[in-house]
Amino acid sequence: MNRFYDVAVVGGGAAGIAAALAAAECGRSVVLIEDYGFFGGTATISGVQSYCGFLTSGPNPQRVVAGMGQRVLEALQAFGHPVEPVLQSSGNWIILLDPERLKVVLDRLVLSAGITPLLHCRVIAAEGENGHIDALVCSHPEGSLRIEVGSVVDATGNANVAAMIAPHSIRPRLQAATLTVRIGNVEPGHAPDREALQAAVIDYQRRTQRHLARSNGGYFVPLPWSGSYWAMMIDVDLVNTDAHYLTRAEIEARGIAHDYLESLRRTVPGFERAILETSGPQLGIRSTRCVTSQQDVLADDALSARQRANGIARSGWPCELHPGNGVTEYRSIPHHGWFHVPFGALIPEGSDNLWLAGSSIGADDIAFGSVRVMGTGFATGHAAGVSAALSSRLSQRSGFDAVKRVLLEQGALL
């Protein structure tokens, strides 16, 4: 059965949720399409149990994301989930997440906004001519579904819709993929120190004759509501998201995780009976492709903390780069600690009714290290959702001034 929606949002992570909520608040009919059986994106699909980017770094953080992102935090807090920021040794502030509570909160927000959710639904084709999308074709467990649309927001995280409709605007962006895991059954009061983790790395490499990409032993964060640890300790190469490469990377990462867990049991005090409670359910894929937009966010924007007259969102996370397996580099944002994402970064070349959000926006590799995080994803998703809503009943894209006015009315920080 065909149905028309003013706005179709593809991808139910931070950016997609914000886009859908914003478009619905503009009075538009909205469908939110998600591959998995739940919303949350990287936070639930890849087990990244924190929101990064709501605050600038350092001892005196400044809030840079509000609007729809703030509404999600308020809904989490009302559900009994703590949302106080936690300072990390890097100087960055994060908000820890319980994926199971987050799933329920997002379900309720989507339904209460009158959005049509389509879970277990994947966009497999975009119909239209000359870059204009008339309909999306989706695959679901019982077959296929055709959805006619006014505007579309690509919040897939890897520019999947943009690659269908404007493949000439796509180029590769290769970064290491990370398998995040949750480790439980650790003796209380036994946080892993760097010396013990180094011993685990040595033990792993001796036993397996393999190099562990994260040579420092990984990044372990205690989860206050469970006594478990959220751990980022496994990096693998991912050339693209072709089924062959992705399958090999998933299998390789799981094998490394279990081998390394054995080394943690052998060397880290309190981890003798540790168990791997859960992984994934998918690798954390930062990016394998990027889109050329009308005005890409550039390294100089971030590294000079540039503010723009057409700034549509703020980005305050330092440029976090992963140039190779196990390598993390930060490049700080100076001065006030944040920079503007320009309106043109949401507009891909080659389409007149597709909007970009979250990790799909136009950005060079260095700036991408900042704008890709979920806090900033809420901000760019909010902007894309309003833009798509205002444009959905027009014959052209809505302009910056109209979008800005509605964003401010909806509580965004610009």
Characterization of the model:
With 414 residues, this protein is α+β, with helices and mostly antiparallel strands. The protein folds into 2 domains: 4-173 and 287-410, FAD/NAD(P)-binding domain; 177-285. The chain is built from 11 helices and 20 strands. Strands 1, 2, 6, 7, 8, 9 and 20 form a 7-stranded mixed β-sheet that branches. Strands 12-13-11-14 form a 4-stranded antiparallel β-sheet. α10 packs across α11. It is globular, with a radius of gyration of 21 Å. It starts with a strand and ends in a 5-residue tail after the last helix. The model has no long low-confidence stretch (mean pLDDT 94).
Q: Structural class, from helix and strand content?
A: alpha+beta
CATH uppermost class of the largest domain: Alpha Beta
The CATH superfamily of the largest domain is known as: FAD/NAD(P)-binding domain
Rounded radius of gyration (Å)? 21 Å
Q: Given the C-alpha coordinates, what overall shape results?
A: globular
Could you name the ranges where pLDDT drops below 50 across 5 or more consecutive residues? none
Question: How many β strands by DSSP?
Answer: 20
- What is the number of helices? 11
Report the helical percentage. 25-40%
The main β sheet shows up as: 7 strands, mixed
* Beta content: 15-25%
Q: What number of domains?
A: 2
Mean pLDDT: 94
Q: What is the CATH architecture annotation of the largest domain?
A: 3-Layer(bba) Sandwich
| CATH topology grouping of the largest domain | FAD/NAD(P)-binding domain
